[in-house]
Design brief:
The chain crosses the membrane at residues 16-34. The chain has a domain at 13-77. Helix content is 84%, strand content 0%. The chain is built from five helices and no strands. The protein has helices at residues 2-8, 13-37, 42-56, 58-76, 81-92.
């Protein structure tokens, strides 16, 4: 199971979520850089859009990995203490 292996090497759901949000920002950044690098022709605009979309497509995959890792962490009992504390507070109050 790939999620188990990722967890064993130290990748946690928080890492996947941070990478997903980072890819969204990087998508906008790479689109702007690509747009400025080759201004002019419509083909250049299309290239900038393709780069932005290519990087932007990473986000759903990374969010999915984050969800899978979070689910695994819940089953494995390795959620962070903060999450456990929040859960206990919600159940108590």
């Amino acid at each position: 199971m790939i999620i188990k292996k990722m967890h064993e090497v130290g990748i946690r759901s928080e890492h996947a979520y941070m990478a997903a949000f980072g890819s969204i920002g990087f998508s906008a950044f790479i689109w702007m850089v690509s747009l400025k690098a080759e201004p002019g022709a419509p083909a250049d605009l299309a290239r900038a859009h393709r780069w932005g979309i290519f990087v932007g497509e990473w986000a759903p995959t990374l969010f999915g990995l984050g969800l899978a890792l979070s689910h695994y962490e819940q089953q494995d009992g390795t959620l962070t203490a903060t999450v456990h504390d929040l859960r206990e507070q919600r159940e108590a109050g």
